[in-house]
Every structure is written in C-alpha cells, then in structure tokens.
Amino acid sequence: MKKFIIPILAMTILLSCTQEPQQSITYPYTQKGDTIDTYFGTTVADPYRWLEDDNSDETQSWVTAQNKVTFDYLAQIPFREKIKNRLTEIWDYPKISAPFKEGGYYFVFKNDGLQNQSVVYIKKELDGEESVILDPNKLSDDGTVALTTFEVSKDGKYIAYGVSRGGSDWREFYVRNIETGEDLADHLMWVKFSGISWYNNGFYYTSYEEPKDGDQLKGVNENAKIYYHTIGDTQDKDQMVYAEPDQPLRGFGASVTEDEKYLIITSTESTSGNALFVKDLMKPNAEVQKIITDFENDYWVVDHKDGKILVMTNDGAPKYRIVSIDLANTTKENWTDFIAEKDDAVLTDVSFIGGKLIANYMKDAHSKIEIYSTDGQYESDLELPVLGTVSGFGGKKEDMSTFFSVTSFTTPSTVYQYDIANNTYIEYIKPEIDFDPSLYETKQVFYTSKDGEKIPMFIVHKKGLELNGNNPTLLYGYGGFNISLTPSFSVTRLIWLENNGVFAMATLRGGGEYGEEWHQAGTKMKKQNVFDDFIAAAEYLIENKYTQSSKLTLQGGSNGGLLVGAVANQRPELFKVALPAVGVMDMLRYHKFTIGRYWATDYGTSEDSKEMFEYLHKYSPVHSIVAGDKYPATLVTTADHDDRVVPAHSFKYIATLQASYTGYHPVMIRIEAKAGHGAGKPTSKRIAEYADLWAFAFFNMDVTPIYK
Predict the structure, then answer these.
(1) Active site residues
(2) CATH 2.130.10.120 for the 94-215+226-233 domain, yes or no
(3) Do domains 78-89+443-700 and 94-215+226-233 have the same CATH topology?
C-alpha cells in the first residue's frame, strides 16, 4: 500500500475569541490502510498502522504536515508570545538542590534560572568554595543531552554518570576523574533502566542487547543482563554477573549494601512486583541466594544489619512495612516486623542515617515524617514547616547531619539542614521567585465518585476568588502504576493562578496514595474506576461553582494521557479543552513496543482473554472515538524520541480524531523534535511547549490573559 499525505490546502484560520470560529481548519489528509486484526473472533481495523514506522518517509512527511497546521494555528493566537514571556520571567530564578556528601566531597545541582540543564558543583566543605565538576549544557549545542545518573565512588576518585540523548530512555555511561575533571576512555552503550552501584574499582549496571538498526526507539527490549565494569576496561570486557536467558522479557536491577558485603538483585516482569536475590560479596564465587522468586509484591532493601537485611515491602501490608530477614533463614515464617504497617498512612521511603531510621509516610497524599531508633522503636514526629511533599534525608549511617526539601503547590522546593541528634532543622536554601504565594490558598476536598468511593482532590486558587462558575480551571490527573500525586511546585501552573484560574489535582484510584488496595482498585477490569473518578472530579468543580464546562481543561501525561483521551471520548461535552501528553492511546497494541509489556499488570492485554480484550477495546482512546461533533478542543503532545510510550500512540489517536470529528474545535498534535517522554527536556523546549499549551487552552476557553 502506498502511504501519502495530500498537501495542506491554503487556509485562513479566524482567530477571534469566540466560542466557535467561523471557519474550520483543514488538516492534512491521512491515508487509511487495510490492516485488520482479529481478537477472539472479533475483527478490529487498524487503518493507521503505517504510522507505527517512525523511520519511514511517509511518517516523517505526516509529522511535518501536522506540525505545520498546529504551529500555524498557534502562531495566530494574539497572546501566545505574552504567555511565553511571562513564563520565561517566572522561570528565571536560581534552582539549587539539597547537597549530598560522598567520597569526602559535597555535591550540589544548580541552575541559574534558564539554563537548559542543571550543572553539578563540587566542594570540599559545606560552606567552602565550589567549582563545576560536570556541566551537561556543554554536551550539546541545544541542551538535548541530559544527565540521568550521577554516582560518586566511595574513595572520591571518580564519578560515573549517564546521559540521555534527545530524550530517549537509552543511556550512555561515562567515568570522570574528580581530580583532573577529565573523562576516562570508559564508554558504555545500550544501558536502560539502570542505576550505577560502585564496588571496589568499578560498578554494577544493567544493559540490553544492541537493537537492530531502525528499532532503537520502538523495538522490544529483551535479554537484560547485570554486568560489572572495571574502571579502564572497554565494555566488551565487562563481567556478566546475572542473567536469565530462558526469561528474555525480565528486567534486572543491582545495588550494593552500604557496608559492601552484599549485592542486591531485583528481577521484574512489570511495573508492580519484583523477585529479590542476594549475593554474598565476601565469599568468592558465591551463588546468588534467591529469597523471593515470584512477582506478587514489592521488595526494596533498606540496608544490611548484623546478618539480616531490612526490607520495605507491601507483602502482607498494602500500606507497606519494614521487615527483618535473616539471611541464614529467609523463609517468610521467619521474617519479623521491624516497623509494622500503619492503618492511616502509607510508608513511601526510609533512610538509615545518624543512628536513626527516618520514615517518610504519606497521609491523605501529603508527607508525614517519623523518627525511629535503629531497633525500630518509634521516637517522635518531625514537625514540618508546610503541608506538602518531603524528599531527601540522604547520607551514611555515621552522618549526624542531612538535608531534606519541602515543596507545595505555591512554593518552590525549600531545602532544610537537619540535625539528627537534636531532631531540629534550619532553613538552608529558599528560592526567590517572582510570585507571591501568600496571595493563594490550597485546600483538600473529598468528593464522591460514581460507585460511592470518596476521592481526594487538591484545589489551588487566589484567596478570595469568587466562585461564580466562570473561572478557567485546569484539572490534572494520573491514576495508575501505584504512582502518587502529592503537592508539588510547577512554574508552568502559575500562569493559571495569576489569571484568576483554578488548579485542581485529583487523587485517583490506580495511584499509590492509599496503598496497594487503592492501586489495585484502578487496574485491569477496574480501570473504569479511574475514569469515573476523573469525571466526578470535573462534575464536583462545576457543581461547586469553581468553573463550568466551557472553562474546563483536562491535562495528563503518559498513563495520564490515556486518562484524558478516554475521558474526553466518554464525556466530551463535560470539557472545553483536552491536553493529552505522550499518552498510551492504543490499548490493543501498547505491549508490542519497547518496554510496554511491563504495563500489563495495570492494564491487562488484548491477548489475555476475550473479556480483557473487550474491556480494553471499549475504553481504548484510539478505538472509542465516535464520529460526530461533540469533542473538546484537543492538543495532543508527543516527541520523536519517546521510546517509553512510542509516538505512534498519539499519531494514531489524532489521525482517528481528525477523520471522525465534524465540529469546529481544533483537534491537533504538536510533535517535539529531539525530545522524549519528558525527563531531561531542556528548559527552552519546556517553556515553548507550555506557552503553546496554555495559549491553546485559554484561546479555546475564550479567556484573555492579563499580561500586557
């Protein structure tokens, strides 16, 4: 079949701020193929299968044509540049991470405001003179090479670091001499989903086989292996430490305990559940000891202590607990609770430092910190300065001082220095930004979903905002993979708040905010719960006069892109604008690309059973579009180097929507070049993208921003 794009017709798009433009948009014609698949006796047409080939000339021509229509439309929005200018102004403030100590040095990440990538600084003393040790901005001319991994050797001689090019999940690892600041010859390729764990004169990492030419960004990733790399060696000399050749679809992770006595190996088949193995590094040629061999629960080793490993797990504890496992007798009957599961909070992280164990809990989707002794006895809470999200508490067991950061919806990340012995902290770094958080308020409400479940939602807006049903509102959600949405600061959302807007973030089932049961309530044959929760959030905002349908925008990315696509298809009249980003849109074929098979524990696959196929087919955004005129204005965003959720998902979705929709609202796609799923995207691209998103949303909601 010959695939082709009919040239775009000359057009004039009327950009007056009216609910319905007087003239429709002419989209590129997308050729339909004749591909048909059969699932359990049911035939399903896939006319845009050819768009899955990201390397073809036809696909590239289609991308160019779609981008031309989109950018021509955006360019005529009168306030687009004003939004971009304001975003640039408020983005331009120094961003400084919490310091961390390793190998006798302190390290800190800094961005002076508008640098595309943050720069790593090194200093000998906490208050001493610092210098640049690694500047990712010098690795490319356009900021599209991003630092992804950064680990310092315990002797303070080397840094091993990883970079991503153009947003891809593929990593390249390098080694830098700290004293000279120069890179060694070490260069590791085809690394993916891997950390770096130093041991002796090298480190452990995970890599995959080199993909076939043309399959780098879409081919299935198979045959992961754990290797040990010795400094100075070429990659072909690296020692293979662990693999399962009879299980080519499994992934592996490797880390070394702080005392360097044990190598911890995790094996995964999905995003939920992992097997757990241990290798004794003190015994030459020791066999790998398999503690957990199934994939039913999650296990994360906190540390090793006196022949026992402390493991954070949801095994027998949906809200997580810490158990002590004796390596001489690892049967579950011999496990003991070190910190028991709580009824009212989810354990999310724990640090063993300064003779204490610092436990980070999540209660109603915000942080709560508790301090325990090294014997697992509760001692006290750590009172936090604001209701928000806490991260940090890194360091060694002997360190008596550490750092943590707190962020909220209206305040950027503030870093505090924590005195462990006295359980006190002082403010260490507070960013200065052109935004006054005291003018805004955050509340948490609980609304009722379709089946009666109470769902939390954060709502942020100006103090004293009139609830007249006319406020532009951005509703954001995710709802999947045990990932929790908690208060966090985003410069981009300030544009909404400054314009008398409302930002709402719904804590949907499928996430991890209330533990594994909450997660499971939004998976597989219960996925519709997530969509119902999001729809009910929109209805709550309308019923309580925060907004109305004509002023409501939906946003979500990745699994959240699926959320927006599915909900926009199910209740198109409820929203004015839909912004699905890098979404999983083809639910019948998602598992056939890169690492997509890992998502099957949340979604199920079209090959599992007739019932699972029918369930997926019913809500799949690509397949649930119905011809007609009742769809919101839609701007799909994706990127050409996204090898997490391949852009074909978004391509097929927008092609189907453009062929089916008969109304006046624009339904478009914005395809970023040299970018991926989102991580590491340079500042310049992020500002440009959000200026386009907000200009599109405001224009289609008939809202004119205040910026002069």
Answers:
(1) 558, 677
(2) yes
(3) no
Q: Tens of pLDDT along 208-232?
A: 988 888 878 778 888 999 999 999 9
Instruction: Report DSSP letters for 405-419, one per residue.
Output: EEE-SSS--EEEEEE
**pLDDT (tens digit per residue) in 463-473:** 999 999 999 99
The answer to whether 70 and 635 are in contact (CB under 8 A) is yes
How many CB atoms are located within 10 Å of the residue 422 CB?
A: 8
CATH topology of domain 78-89+443-700: Rossmann fold (3.40.50)
CA angle 509, 514, 516 (to 5 degrees): 80
614: three-class secondary structure by DSSP: helix
- Full-model pTM: 0.92
pLDDT of 572 over the 60 cut: yes
- Sheet-wide strand order for 321-326: 299-305, 308-313, 321-326, 336-339
661: its two tokens? 């929709």
Tell me, letter by letter, the H, E, C secondary structure of 148-185. EEEEECCCCCEEEEEEEECCCCCEEEEEEECCCCCEEE
Encode burial over 155-172: b for 16+ CB neighbours within 10 A, e otherwise.
Answer: eeebbbbbbbbbbbbbbb
The CA–CA distances, whole Å, from 105 to 77, 181, 256, 372 equal 50, 14, 20, 28
Counted residue by residue, the chain has a size of 708
Q: How far apart are alpha carbons 9 and 488 in whole angstroms?
A: 44
